[in-house]
Amino acid sequence: MKQKGKPSEDITIFDVANEAGVSYSTVSRVLNNKEHVSPEKRERVLRAMAELGYVANIQARTLAGGRSHIVGLLVHGLDTSYIGEIMKGIDNELHTVNYDLMLYTTHRRKTKESAYVVKLTRNLVDGLLLVLPRNADAYLETLRQRHFPHVLVDHLGLPTIDAPAVGATNWQGAYEATTYLLDLGHRRIGFITGSMELGCAVERLEGYKAALEKHGIVIDPELIREGDFLQPRGYTCARELLALAEPPTAIFASNDISAFGAMEAVRDHGLQIPRDISIIGFDDIPQAASVNPPLTTVRQPLEQMGSSAARMLLDYIAEPDRPVERLELPTELIVRQSCREPLPLGLTSTL
Hints:
elongated; six-stranded mixed beta sheet; single chain; Rossmann fold; 434 Repressor (Amino-terminal Domain); six-stranded parallel beta sheet; 3 domains
């Protein structure tokens, strides 16, 4: 029963100890999920907490040298299943060790990203996961100097400060996707980039260029359009490519969401996929297999990236001074029905 006249937020750890008939240190061990507490005492403490309406003061616990058993997760938004797949891996990994997630979304605003990092690292969480961070150089040095556990996800390329990270073979994946189109006979391949402030976007563009150079094809800047990993810009970039005097016979978009925009633009142009133009994406989010036609794409192991990043972060929480680790997981080309060889000259539909 809650103490009369005492709000839940004013119930202290000493109140819980008195109610449960145990010591303050026993309650502390239960709160911090420590061992050496008998099941019977643990049950008494948990029952007392529930009856009193005890609300743990996370900041007080961490300031006192304990852990919050919470991991901060910073993402740009929740509008794509790309984020959902990564979060699934993170959540599954943390669940096995009784850690919770504290989620913040930046809505792709750099100032919000920095502000949230500062907020989360002020004794709210034990460690920090940052998915596709856009402003990492602004705070990575501070995190490093404070030995605050953190791991970047899908951002191996651009930060000037060496930071723990988990990503995928973006360059290799883009190289293999472009090579696949070249092997089908395509020679004019349009490319829609991602946000070029992100390392993964730069690596995918470089992989595309390397494949063209390997096949002796001069890189045409006109065929490269800067996107932002979002569907509306994918649509616009594809429209620009289709409007060229000599349009591409294939378009490689830097992620599946942009590829969906490109597919919409192709259809609005009165063309058929893949008869008139081939489309290829990157990520292999669940929707890629269900669009019409099913999208050929480069599979990133998104769920595995999330679980690997969470596991790495837990290692840093246990040992903040361990050496910087950077894990690069393999990509895989997934061939579906959105690509084929180009039509013979003269048979392609009017663009």
